[in-house]
Amino acid sequence: MNQQIQNKLALLPDQPGCYIMKDKSGTIIYVGKAKILKNRVRSYFTGGHDTKTEHLISEVVDFEYIVTESNIEALLLENNLIKENLPRYNIMLKDDKTYPFIKITNEKYPRLMITRKVLKDGAEYFGPYPDIGAANETKKF
């Protein structure tokens, strides 16, 4: 781990946000979100990891972070950053998938459904949810 990363790790806040990992050419190779930036980002540079994560960390020479007001805001920001930058280590969302939302249609007899597209169709949308399982549980409730 280089000195620049060590210095930045010491400055990480105890707040939610997104982190952006970069390689030696400055290319964004991974985007993630955290409830507590300090804990999450530091975890990459300590302890054992799976092969994919070890390979990612071996390429990281710099990182940036963006503090958000809430974990939900971090989730939305992460989604947007992944779509904008298409980091190669982000599997989820890279194939144009998005987080699921619960939709209440604007019909005479409204339907409750799960969708990955938020349209300007007069319906009410709730989310995003971190995964389809969480959206289904909320829908059942």
UniProtKB/TrEMBL annotation:
InterPro entries in the cross-refs: GIY-YIG_endonuc (IPR000305), GIY-YIG_endonuc_sf (IPR035901), GIY-YIG_UvrC_Cho (IPR047296), UvrABC_protein_C (IPR050066)
Source species, domain of life: Bacteria
One of the record's GO cellular component terms: excinuclease repair complex
Keyword DNA repair: yes
PROSITE patterns: GIY_YIG
Annotated GIY-YIG domain residues: 14-91
GO molecular function: nuclease activity
GO annotation (BP), single: nucleotide-excision repair
Keyword annotations of the record: Cytoplasm, DNA damage, DNA excision, DNA repair, Excision nuclease
One Pfam family matching this protein: GIY-YIG
PANTHER family: UVRABC SYSTEM PROTEIN C, UVRC/OXIDOREDUCTASE
Listed name of the protein: ABC superfamily excinuclease subunit C
